[in-house]
């Protein structure tokens, strides 16, 4: 069980990035997070990963409060962020150095095989394509078997074909470990392809606008009725979430007028 | 009619892939092209003097420089001078590089120490290093210590600036990877920061070494009884331009060899780099 309760983040300059965000996920659930730019999606992930500190609220994995980087939480960034001086295998094993060598090698080999890069362990990161590098980054996050895995627009820099194959790799890794996954994306189709539930966030300050459950069997058929319905609901909610602040501002303005008169 | 019209086509198609390997075959000999200009100039000057077009008294022809070099080498003098100079450069380089690396690391890693030390060091850097000579002579005497100190000062600044800049320039995104995997402070330094600054550190060392060779001449000008710098002064005083040029050529060769050794010794450390440097 992964819970976020009333999470709030206000930056030093007064910018309210997140306000009162509450999300609860069952173990093994995949959550998609979509929303307009500046709605705090990345802030949310950085708080959960322990890279930034929340102003208020609580994050917990199986009842244990998360206050900084935690072994139960892994993250894949928007860029691969591989360490260029380590081989592909050493990059994947970066978080396993305290384990015995034999175990480390075995787990690294297994993770690399699952992302289809079994023969690439000895290469340098620079010798890999962008998609391959991102697969290494995903393997690096999975290999320490975190309970919660965060992905911050991990496929946004890739072309559609590479993206589709990476979705398969991601789901195959998830099948093996059944981690709880939170994936932030600006691609609605990607969210609906991967997630059990999609949260639509709304900017200024970032908060949860609507949650949509995706009722469709995996592997998802992009042409299926359930898929299409969910996709349309998400797009719809996204549309309304982007328009909503104007409505509210108008209302506030109207109230202001009333007070003035 | 058919055959000749198709064969050029296949030729073109087949010729494309081996292009890269072929240029690689030429690669070992490619540096020879850099020798063409100096060799041509030397040969031209030699011929000009031979045929009486030039006197060659102040600018001796290559044959006479070579004769001076072999004479120095045969008497064992050259070896003595080279060793003396090399020892001074290496001692000064070692001192300057260690001090520069430590101070650079301190300034790069801690904002407070940067604010304490950097202004002073920058002010000292603005002093032409030769200006230290009289002071070093007074403090350290006219023998080795003052020479090594001067070289160390010359090496210190490029290394200090390079290391401090490299640490400030470490990619925050890679540090975050370290934080996500909960590295300790020591682990962060050892597993992320050190490898990240390594390439720039090596470049700083290289420019430090180059400056070391610059300063050893200045150091040997201020009263040495051996060393390549002494050979220069001596050649000027007894009016032997061939000896001066022999010393200059030895400097060039020695400096290039030292630089090449440094690069070759450190290349395995930066094999992973994805930069133009790897193809240079």
TrEMBL record, chain A:
SMART domains: AAA (SM00382). The lineage of its organism: Bacteria, Pseudomonadati, Pseudomonadota, Alphaproteobacteria, Hyphomicrobiales. PANTHER family: ALIPHATIC SULFONATES IMPORT ATP-BINDING PROTEIN SSUB 2, TAURINE IMPORT ATP-BINDING PROTEIN-RELATED. Residues 2-228 form the ABC transporter domain. GO terms for molecular function: ATP binding. It comes from the Bacteria. Belongs to the ABC transporter superfamily. This is ABC transporter ATP-binding protein. Pfam families: ABC_tran. Keywords: ATP-binding, Nucleotide-binding, Transport. InterPro entries: AAA+_ATPase, ABC_transporter-like_ATP-bd, ABC_transporter-like_CS, ABC_transporter_ATP-bind, P-loop_NTPase.
TrEMBL record, chain B:
Coiled coil: none annotated. It is a multi-pass membrane protein. The keyword Membrane applies. Residues 1-23 are annotated as: Disordered. It comes from Alsobacter ponti. Belongs to the binding-protein-dependent transport system permease family. This is ABC transporter permease. InterPro entries: MetI-like, MetI-like_sf. Residues 82-262 form the ABC transmembrane type-1 domain. PROSITE patterns: ABC_TM1. It holds the Pfam family BPD_transp_1.
């Amino acid at each position: 069980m992964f819970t976020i309760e009333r999470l709030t983040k206000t930056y030093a300059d007064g910018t309210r990035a997140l306000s009162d965000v509450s999300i609860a996920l069952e173990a093994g659930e995949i959550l998609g997070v979509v929303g307009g730019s500046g709605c705090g999606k990345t802030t949310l992930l950085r708080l959960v990963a322990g890279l930034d500190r929340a102003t208020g609220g609580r994050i917990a994995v199986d009842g244990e409060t998360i206050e900084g980087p935690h072994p139960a939480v892994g993250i894949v960034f928007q860029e691969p962020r591989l360490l260029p001086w380590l081989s592909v295998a050493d990059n994947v094993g970066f978080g396993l150095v305290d384990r015995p060598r034999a175990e480390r090698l075995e787990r690294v080999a297994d993770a690399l095989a699952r992302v289809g890069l079994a023969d690439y362990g000895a290469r340098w990161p620079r010798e890999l394509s962008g998609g391959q590098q991102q697969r290494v980054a995903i393997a690096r996050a999975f290999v320490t078997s975190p309970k919660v895995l965060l992905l911050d627009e991990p496929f946004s820099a890739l072309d559609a074909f590479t993206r589709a194959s990476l979705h398969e790799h991601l789901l195959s890794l998830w099948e093996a470990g059944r981690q709880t996954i939170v994936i932030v994306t600006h691609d609605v189709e990607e969210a609906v392809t991967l997630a059990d539930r999609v949260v639509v966030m709304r900017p200024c300050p970032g908060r949860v606008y609507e949650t949509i459950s995706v009722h469709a069997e995996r592997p998802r058929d992009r042409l299926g009725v359930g898929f299409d319905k969910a996709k349309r609901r998400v797009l719809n909610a996204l549309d309304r979430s982007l328009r909503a602040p104007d409505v509210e501002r108008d209302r506030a303005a109207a109230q202001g007028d009333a007070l003035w008169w | 009619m058919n055959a000749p019209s198709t064969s050029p086509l296949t030729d073109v198609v087949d010729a494309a892939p081996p292009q890269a390997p072929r240029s690689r075959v030429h690669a070992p000999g490619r540096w020879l092209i850099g020798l063409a200009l100096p060799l041509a100039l030397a040969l031209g000057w030699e011929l000009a003097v031979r045929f009486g077009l030039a006197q060659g008294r102040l600018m001796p022809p290559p044959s006479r420089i070579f004769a001076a070099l072999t004479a120095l080498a045969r008497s064992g003098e050259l070896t003595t001078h080279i060793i003396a100079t090399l020892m001074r450069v290496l001692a000064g380089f070692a001192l300057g590089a260690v001090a520069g690396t430590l101070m650079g690391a301190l300034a790069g890693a801690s904002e407070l120490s940067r604010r304490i030390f950097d202004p002073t060091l920058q002010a000292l850097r603005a002093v032409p290093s030769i200006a230290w000579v009289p002071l070093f002579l007074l403090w350290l005497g006219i023998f080795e210590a003052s020479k090594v100190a001067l070289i160390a000062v010359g090496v210190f600044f490029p290394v200090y600036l390079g290391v401090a800049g490299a640490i400030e320039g470490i990619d925050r995104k890679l540090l975050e990877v370290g934080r996500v995997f909960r590295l300790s402070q020591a682990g962060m330094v050892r597993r992320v920061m050190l490898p990240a600054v390594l390439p720039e550190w090596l470049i700083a060392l290289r420019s430090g070494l180059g400056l070391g060779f610059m300063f050893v001449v200045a150091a040997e000008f201020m009263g040495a009884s051996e060393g390549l710098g002494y050979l220069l002064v001596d050649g000027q005083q007894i009016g032997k331009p061939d000896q001066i040029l022999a010393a200059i050529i030895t400097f060039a060769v020695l400096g290039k060899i030292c630089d090449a050794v440094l690069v070759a010794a450190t290349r395995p450390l930066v094999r992973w780099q994805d930069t133009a440097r790897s193809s240079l």
